[in-house]
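On clarity, I found the account of how folds are encoded harder to follow than it need be. For illustration, here is how one protein appears when written out as sequence plus C-alpha cells:

:::
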Amino acid sequence: MKKPSTLARPASPPSPANKQLGRRERRAAETRERLFRAALRLFEERGFSATTVEDITEAADVGKGTFFNYFPSKEHIIAAFGQLQLGKLQAAVAAAQSGGLPTRQLLHRLAKALAEEPGRSPSLVRSILLANLSSEPVRQLLQQNLERGRTLLGELFAVVQQRGEIRRDLKASELARAFQQVFFGALLMWSLDPQEPLTARFDTVFLILWSGIGAEPSNPGKEKLS
C-alpha cells in the first residue's frame, strides 16, 4: 500500500485566536448590514431628513454609539448605497478587460445589475434624490461616487473602443457621461411613475442607447436583448 503523500495531508486547523477573529469580523459585517438595511427602510418610509441616527439604531436593535463605529454620519448610509453600485461597475470593467463577453451583452448586464438595488423601491429612490437636492453633505458624497463611476465607465468604454465594438468618434469620457445621464434620467422618471419594473424601463433605455453607441447602430425596435 502506498504511503500517503505529505501534500495530501489536511491543513492544520485554525488557531482559537484566528477563529475568534473570524467571528468578530462576521459579527461586525452583520451589524453593519443590519444598520444599512434598517436605515434604507426608514428613508423609504419617512424620508431622509425625518430619519435620525437614533431611529436607525433602534430599528437595527443596536446601541446608538454603535452606529458611529460603522458610519461617520447618516449621510454615509447613502454613500454606502452608491458604493454598492460602484462595485458593479468595477466588476464590469474587469469583465471588459478579460474579453469574455461581447460589449452589447456586457453593457446590458451592467444596466440590469445597476437597476437591481434601486428597483426595489421607488420611494427610496425619491428619498435619496431629495436628500441629494436638500443636503450639501449628501450632495458632496454622491458627487464623489458619480465621479468615480464616470472614471470606471470611461475605463470600460476605452477598452471596448480599442476592440472596435463601439463607436470611436467620441471620447470614452463623453460616452461615460452620456451613460450616466441616460440612466439617471430613466431612474428619476421611473421613481415618479413606476408602472413597470425598473429593469424593464432600463431594457428599453439600453436599446436606444446602444443604437447610438454601437459600432454598427441598429434599429432598437428590432433588437432582442440577451
